[in-house]
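BUG: 3D viewer hangs when loading the predicted structure for this chain

Environment: internal workstation, default settings.
Expected: structure renders.
Actual: progress bar stalls at 90%.

Input used:
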Amino acid sequence: MGATRQRLIGCFTTVFPKLAPEQVVAATLDSTHDWDSTRHFLLMQVVEEEFSLQIPEEMIGEMVSFAGFEDYLERESKVS
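Structure tokens produced before the viewer hung:
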């Protein structure tokens, strides 16, 4: 498992402590009971802090799953 994925799992488990790590990688806005607008905002903040970046507002709509966050982070790492 890559370092980015491991760190992102840590972000998700901080915001969604009831999820086991294997559940986190499949997490989506629709499949995660506690994923509401407040937790979404908190998750964005935790990810920004962990990865020392600012996620543009226009990306918020794409960040509705673990995979969405992971894809974004992979794209950003190639740009940086």
